[in-house]
């Protein structure tokens, strides 16, 4: 029972850390100039593809892969906000 309690506490700690990082990334993306976000979009897509390949070729749960895909989609949409002209960055 002690191991389950410790695992639960650690999962809660990791969730809190992840939420803090998510808030930081969101704030950074919103503060970035449009030109920088265009470059970031291309770089992020490449890194996400590498990470996806690693996840798919490792012993990883479907929940991990689903969370990864969800967060990549969310982050991509934050990066690709509309320009003032109404066009998307992608």
Describe this structure in words.
- With 90 residues, this protein is an all-alpha fold.
- 79% of the residues lie in helices and 0% in strands.
- The chain has 3 helices and no strands.
- It is flat.
- It starts with a helix and ends in an 11-residue tail after the last helix.
Assembly state: single chain
Residue share in β-strands: under 5%
Q: State the helical fraction.
A: over 70%
- Total number of beta strands: 0
Unreliable parts: none
Mean pLDDT: 88
Question: Could you say which overall geometry the principal axes of the C-alpha atoms support?
Answer: flat
Summarize the helix and strand pattern as letters.
HHH
The value of Rg in angstroms is 17 Å
Distance between the termini: 50 Å
Largest sheet: none
How many alpha or pi helices?
3
Q: Helix- and strand-based class?
A: mainly alpha
């Amino acid at each position: 029972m002690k191991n389950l309690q410790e695992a639960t506490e650690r999962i809660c700690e990791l969730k809190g850390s992840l939420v803090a990082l998510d808030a930081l990334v969101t704030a950074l993306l919103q503060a970035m100039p449009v030109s920088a976000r265009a470059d970031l979009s291309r770089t992020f897509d490449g890194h996400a593809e590498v990470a996806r390949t690693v996840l798919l070729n490792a012993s990883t749960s479907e929940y991990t892969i689903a969370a990864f895909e969800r967060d990549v989609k969310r982050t991509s949409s934050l990066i690709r906000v509309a320009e003032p002209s109404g066009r998307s960055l992608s």
